[in-house]
Specification:
With about 100 residues, the chain is mainly beta. The protein has one domain: OB fold (Dihydrolipoamide Acetyltransferase, E2P). Helix content is about 5%, strand content about 60%. A 5-stranded mixed beta barrel has the order 1-3-4-6-5. Strand 2 and strand 3 form a beta hairpin.
Amino acid sequence: MNQTVLSARIAEAAALRYTPAGLPAIDLRLEHESELVEAGQTRQVKLELKAVAFGTAAETLVRQAIGSEFRFTGFLAAPRNGKHPVLHIQSFQQDTFS
């Protein structure tokens, strides 16, 4: 199963675009910071991740402020010409990084 849940803030958002099929789409850059326990040790985790949303999710995300925090749910896929994964956002909700 390929399902990802990530609490992150919107760091960058491109302009709303449309796919050849006419679906609204938006490309985002998300930032995440947290402190986790791994093998009994506290670890600081920071990452940046490219993301994309389509349809009504894209139309809603384009109206959100940079720095807004959400819990994103989706799946990871590599773009056709890239090596790094992209989060394909299927849903999201306000998050407080609890």
